[in-house]
């Protein structure tokens, strides 16, 4: 597969988040439900903000959630986000998000992207590799979308509640998110679609086909594309996020030869256990990396770096970091003690 350097054109994201989440049975809309001290929508935004070739993210929320969303952006330091007020239906909200690049009434118009990705605010589990596939396919074909195999057989019923017929499951797929479009294709489709589509439609790919004549390239996605829909899904999402966060670490090596060598060995060991490990010499001037990490390992030959660690912890707390665990290991005096013991044995 082509690498991310293949994205030499502007890409933006629209996240519709104006729903009330009735199916969860909770008073709070699911996108604003909090776990690990952070609302679900913030995890989804972070997924896209970490990708360097994504330039901007438009989050579409209900009018009554506008101030809350602005607070979330400020609290968790989201830098690529613009918030706009949504409509009464999903399609009306997505159209509002697309208008932010052409005719925004809420502040400056954003730079128009070549490709726009439409995704659900309550689907935080999408990786860069799959987004790259969707983006490149959208650029080449005009539209692209994630699909998954149907789990259950789909049936049609009569008005009296009896079985009419069933569909052959192998011929059909479930349409999922994300979906990608050439901006001009999907914006034109929304400009042309009917009031019926705005009121009752749910499928963006259908609009691109019907009103722009663009047939989407369909790409089978991983099982992780599922959507938080019911209350039980929130617990599952929290568990997955905890597991995901535990698979990355920031290793603070220091500048001494001994600690650098030990850091290199530890890095290799952790990576052999499928952990993603970033290594930095010190925490100063590495704030951006620290904000993307949840687990921290500091290696030291003395207690001198304890003050640096304390400053790092204070910084992370000020940023409202959503820790599931904070892993801080101190190797104080370890190497120097070992050398001292070896020297004594050699002298005796």
From TrEMBL:
Residues 248-344 form the D-ribitol-5-phosphate cytidylyltransferase C-terminal domain. The keyword Nucleotidyltransferase applies. Its main location: cytoplasm. Keywords: Cytoplasm, Nucleotidyltransferase, Transferase. One of its GO terms (molecular function) is D-ribitol-5-phosphate cytidylyltransferase activity. Its EC number is 2.7.7.40. One of its GO terms (biological process) is isoprenoid biosynthetic process. One of its GO terms (cellular component) is cytosol. It is found in: Cytoplasm, Cytosol. It comes from the Eukaryota. Pathway: Protein modification; protein glycosylation. It catalyses: D-ribose 5-phosphate + CTP + H(+) = CDP-D-ribose + diphosphate; D-ribitol 5-phosphate + CTP + H(+) = CDP-L-ribitol + diphosphate; D-ribulose 5-phosphate + CTP + H(+) = CDP-D-ribulose + diphosphate. Homodimer. Cytidylyltransferase required for protein O-linked mannosylation. Catalyzes the formation of CDP-ribitol nucleotide sugar from D-ribitol 5-phosphate. CDP-ribitol is a substrate of FKTN during the biosynthesis of the phosphorylated O-mannosyl trisaccharide (N-acetylgalactosamine-beta-3-N-acetylglucosamine-beta-4-(phosphate-6-)mannose), a carbohydrate structure present in alpha-dystroglycan (DAG1), which is required for binding laminin G-like domain-containing extracellular proteins with high affinity. Belongs to the IspD/TarI cytidylyltransferase family. IspD subfamily. This is D-ribitol-5-phosphate cytidylyltransferase.
